[in-house]
Amino acid sequence: MPISTPHIIAEEGDFAKTVLMPGDPRRSEFIARTFLEEPRLVNDIRGVKGFTGTYKGKKVSVMASGMGMPSIGIYSWELFSSFGVENIIRIGTAGSYSPDMHLGDLIIAQGACTNSNYASMFGMPGTFAPIADFGLLRKAVETAELRGFPFKVGSIYSSDTFYSDSAADMKWAEMGVLGVDMEAAALYANAARLGKKALCICSVSNSFIYPEEDATAQQRETMFTNMMEVALEIA
Length: 235
Fold this sequence. Notes:
Elements: E1 2-4, E2 9-11, E3 18-21, H1 25-35, E4 37-43, E5 50-55, E6 58-63, H2 69-82, E7 87-96, E8 106-114, H3 134-147, E9 151-158, H4 166-174, E10 179-181, H5 184-194, E11 197-207, H6 217-222, H7 225-234
């Protein structure tokens, strides 16, 4: 019998223990068709495609999260709690705050700052600091170094808003935050609450320092393969 949640329907065992999670369903399909052997569609509810195949003989899944913390919060929670998933590696894009980072460079997010109220649902009497799983983080760093990919490790800022006051955004840069995404903090919070493991690896798709470096929609879908290769190697 299939396992059914409000947003995923799949047979038991359809998902691997490790799921790569881009935001864009088209990027999910691109990764599956490009990198996985014998990929098969295991979920297509609401058009959020999930695939499972093998990479170098290891079972791996890839499924989109959609945009924003509410969306990745739903999909990661259901994968962790209902489908036996142990590790989720977000592979997305981010805007860079760092003058040392350029288009395509990797941000390996050790921690996630946020303006979201997402973690308040857990009822903690203080402020929760969402962080990555160290084992996944260490493997990502080792893989990026081995392959010679340009990267930085540090904090990312997970924002609830895409269109915001850029001057306010740069306040995060003053605190050493490397860039901005919209998902990592919720993923890390869910993993912590459910006793699972998570990591966010983002490719720089645009820069607040170098506005001329701005990827097209097509480039965002297919260009940033370095982060995909790192995630697959550690999966």
